[in-house]
Structure prediction request, 270 residues.
Amino acid sequence: MKIEANDVSVRRGNQTILEPLSLAIDGPGLVGLIGPNGAGKSTVLRVLAGLEPTETGAVLYDGQTASVIGRDALGCRLSYLAQSGRVHWPLKVERVVALGRLPHRQRGDAAGDRDRAAVEAAMRATHVTALRNRPASTLSGGERMRVLLARALAVEAEVLLADEPIAALDPYHQLEVMDLLRDLAAAGTTVVAVLHDLSLALRYCDRLVLLSDGAMLADGAPDAVLSDANLETAYRVVAHRVCVAGENYIVPWVRLGAAAPDETVRDGRA
Prediction:
């Protein structure tokens, strides 16, 4: 499914949250939305999901508005993982994941074989099967985020919009989730994820969209978007670049205006 945001802007009260922006998400791949805190990343994701009212512009899904497609039909084709990681009901994990199948069922219908298979596959993919009978309210933040990712995967949507899917995770599970998102993209799903870790964004994403002060600063290949000039403009940092096993990594090293670390440390020498 192709998603087009055409000249969209967002205001809340007297404050402009998102300047007029145009963005097209077309075809499978892993797209990273990056930028400093308050840049507008979550707002853009909610706009793409049809959850954020816009001041100007429109969002089209394969050339149609959400109202024309219908919310139920769109809910089967597009899945959204929120940033908060909250579960508002005292449900067991398996039932939370099963909520992802609701768009596929008529109201009142019992879950079918395909629903149960999708739930099991989503729990296996996120390694939460062992938690199935735990109340979601008893989980750690990282466990809860993986359960909510499983719920989003259970939709089996064409497009997955994930807001900071690795924010609450330890390094092992961050890599696990990024591997999963990359595998989903390789299998044909369009994945758009808000990310803060620039090295993981560079390593895993096919495309990056860099936001700064509610506007798009850059859009394109990760190496080009994460240029020294863009990092200084958006993040106000100077980065140290490292190549490991043929892959490039970025380490934010110095705040602009701050004293530089000892040069021997910057160069990686004792």
